[in-house]
Protein 1
Amino acid sequence: MKILSAEQLSEADKETIKKQNISSEELMERAATLVFNEINNRLRGAPIPIKIFCGIGNNGGDGLVVARHLIQHGYNVTVYVVNYSDKRSEDFLANYEKLKEITNNWPQVIKKEDDFPEINIGDFVIDAIFGIGLNRPIEGWVAKLVEEINHSKAFTLAVDMPSGLFADKASEKNSAIIEANYTLSFQSPKLVFFLPETMDYVGDLQVLDIGLDREFIGRIKSKTFLIGKQQALSLYLPRKKNSHKGDYGSVLIAGGSYGKIGSVLLTATAALRSGTGLCSLYIPKCGYNIIQTGLPEAMVVTDPDHEILTTYPKDFKADVVCFGMGAGTSFNTVKALKELLELMDKPVVIDADGLNILSENNDLLKLLPENSVLTPHPGELKRLVGAWKDDFHKLDLVKEFSSKYKVIVVIKGAHSLTIDRDNVYVNNTGNPGMATAGSGDVLSGVITSLIGQGYEPVNATVLGIYLHGLSGDISAEELGYEGVLAGDIAKNIGKALSKIFEKDATESDIN
Ligand SMILES: NC(=O)C1=CN([C@@H]2O[C@H](COP(=O)(O)OP(=O)(O)OC[C@H]3O[C@@H](n4cnc5c(N)ncnc54)[C@H](O)[C@@H]3O)[C@@H](O)[C@H]2O)[C@H](O)CC1
Ligand SMILES: [K+]
């Protein structure tokens, strides 16, 4: 699914009005009625106090439409107009009149702090103050109102976006932003919903298809995508009935050191569980018995050294090599990575200490074969691309790095991002249970495996992250967040793959 910018959404809005020959007020009615339906389905007539805070633009207009439908269905509603300016939009005004026609309980206008109502923890707050039209941080008494809503701890549902967030740029530090429990967003999720600094404001997310023109949206050149089940399915390369292990890639996983052999064991397990035909490990001698006992399906080649990698086996033929987990950054291990990079003309996967070595030895970066995949966690990323001011600056730095070295970079996080030059793929699977030792080693194994099976490196990365997250979700369902081990994520990759073929009637449109 494309993630559209505020500008693209406004264009799609205008184009839809033209093509479907409807008024903008009709489009607002359609969008906001969907919001009402969702609320009505959940509240089912419950008499809880609903407080709707409406701005004076079209987000506020949506709020007024929702209010009208709720009142007509007998809900206990109070509407507040957050009068931050006198420039009320036409559709706001039209719906203001419509609301006054159906109730004697007219909206209360808030113009200053003294006008704030009491907001109780048991209220149901609807935030329709600002949407994608926000063009500067919220200030003054409106900022105070936002804080008041947040402090109340009342359940808060944001219409289109939590007020105070920009759709596609960073917020200033300490800005007033609604902390929503639930966000019902129109047509396309917004990029900020998935970035670490802003995702917590969104709560649970649901995207409503408000019927903006499909053909126009299809033509929009977006470089930012949310990866859901449909996209994962479209990337999958089916297996031929008439095939053998030689068809599914020979991978080599190079890494480990004394005390850190578990890391490569996890990576290799994940590679095999992801469908690799032949899996070999290149490890220091100390890991030989561990791997041969722990993973009899794998083959082992050992370094001359007992404790660390010191060289690279030049004659070893593999379709793809993964380097770095548990390897350490000793002088001779740097040499081993250099030998690998000098030899390889096919994409490699570099993780963990492989990345630390790259950031300390910048001259190695230009040896990376085109379309190699780097999978840093935030600390490793910072060492590679430098410090960033905010999430959007980080994206710019990584895009620049990806273009400069012609590599694919994963920004790991709650929503891991795959950056391939200017393209951004946002992952939407996974859970906090995956924040556990070895989870990254498993991810590298999945990506390496898929590259070995013939997936384009960017597709292997996007699908690999999706499957890794889904496997984490399956594991958390079985074991609870705290109970998940990286080994469980590796073990359940096959189940995750099967799951993308399941039809799910209740599936939300973003999963
Ligand atoms: N695009 C769609 O698919 C549809 C969107 N709808 C809803 O419309 C809003 C966007 O409405 P818009 O009037 O453009 O903007 P806002 O309501 O978010 O803001 C109003 C107005 O406020 C001014 N402003 C911006 N920042 C500030 C500030 N910090 N302080 C004071 N004033 C500010 C600025 O002039 C804005 O224009 C979208 O989110 C949807 O909810 C349609 O209803 C359906 C189709
Ligand atoms: K809002």
Note: The chain has two domains: 6-221, 249-499.
Protein 2
Amino acid sequence: MTDDPAPQVLIVMGVSGSGKSTIGEQLAERLGWAYRDADDFHPPSNVEKMSAGQPLTDDDRWPWLRAIAAEIDRIADSGDHAVFGCSALKRAYRDILVHGRDDVRIVYLDGSRALIAERVAARKNHFMPPGLLDSQFATLEKPGPDERPFVVSIDASVGQIVDAIVEQLPRPFPQQSLI
Ligand SMILES: Nc1ncnc2c1ncn2[C@@H]1O[C@H](COP(=O)(O)OP(=O)(O)OP(=O)(O)O)[C@@H](O)[C@H]1O
Ligand SMILES: O=C(O)[C@H](O)[C@@H](O)[C@H](O)[C@H](O)CO
């Protein structure tokens, strides 16, 4: 379909603890793509703030999102592929990242607060305090149909979730034909 080209970049989005890094890394491996984590684009001040239990504001996030958008454009425009794990909680944030490109697509990791709280409580060695989960859900604007997201439930094994994403990707999907 001409209006549904194979994506160059997939943005795996969701609240803290929804599984962006875990699923994003496995999805990238499955596709033979690079994985990039949006957390690596935060200035130290943002990480310090979250580590201290304070949610980020829009003003904390705009420059961070613009830096990620520039990297997405660089990768997609050079014909490369990547999976980005990025919370991208609000529509306005995703508009910066996608800005109308039809080769940059959103994957939404959909899960209940209870399930995510359980996983975050069990997680070790991560700067994001579990106490910020409420603000993450308060900020979350689930992607609407017009954003054409690939939506997956995270109440499944990692392998099942990756399968459920790959099944939704537009076909023919070049990387899959290599398998
Ligand atoms: N499908 C799954 N089944 C069981 N555990 C999972 C699953 N997906 C992720 N986890 C676990 O849940 C925790 C949160 O996952 P992960 O760190 O990937 O989330 P994240 O969205 O990248 O979080 P953050 O945005 O805070 O960095 C991790 O301990 C991870 O191992
Ligand atoms: O927009 C945000 O509030 C941030 O991106 C957070 O989501 C964290 O960076 C991430 O969840 C921790 O890894």
Note: Residues 14, 16-22, 39, 85, 87, 119, 123, 128, 154, 157-158, 161 surround adenosine-5'-triphosphate (ligand 1) (CB under 6 Å).
